[in-house]
């Protein structure tokens, strides 16, 4: 009889432990500076590994992972963020069409993992981020995206 009153506590601990183990399926997001210093092949392999782990994760775990990535980026100074952005943009322009296609396929495969609700949330996040840009920056981003989607 006394054991019965401890059952909810034990069950709660088991559920919390299993939740932590499931959360451990996703690795800690890398520091953006480390990612920027990787080669194309290393970045592609890292992205593939993360995508495989994302397949196993729940929508809540994927959201937590994205939030951690965002927090790591926000932890950088504005100058560091700008420098990383410019470096990655320059590297993108230096990729071959085949390499760009590989990255686009990886991004598309990552989006296919997400639920419709997750995709909607990401679109809303992107929309909010675009609102923060000046009209000139939005136009430049738009032009670059359409240029790259037409095969450069």
What does this structure look like?
The protein is mainly alpha-helical. It has one domain. It is built from eight helices and no strands. The protein has helices at 7-23, 32-36, 40-56, 59-74, 78-94, 97-113, 116-131, 135-149. α3 (40-56) packs parallel to α6 (97-113). The longest helix has 17 residues, at 7-23. It is globular, with a radius of gyration of 20 Å. The protein starts with 6 loop residues before the first helix and ends with a helix.
Draw up the topology in text.
Elements: H1 7-23, H2 32-36, H3 40-56, H4 59-74, H5 78-94, H6 97-113, H7 116-131, H8 135-149
Helix pairs in contact: 3-6
C-alpha end-to-end distance? 73 Å
The total of helices stands at 8
Count up the domains.
1
> Which value, in Å, is the CA radius of gyration?
20 Å
Instruction: Summarize the amount of helix as a percent range.
Output: over 70%
Low-confidence parts, pLDDT < 50 over ≥5 residues? 6-11, 16-23
Overall average residue pLDDT:
81
- Structural class based on helices, strands and sheet pairing: mainly alpha
| Count of β-strands | 0
Strand count, sense and barrel status of the largest sheet are:
none
Listing every helix as H and every strand as E from the N terminus to the C terminus, the arrangement reads: HHHHHHHH
Question: In percent terms, what proportion of residues is strand?
Answer: under 5%
Shape descriptor reads globular
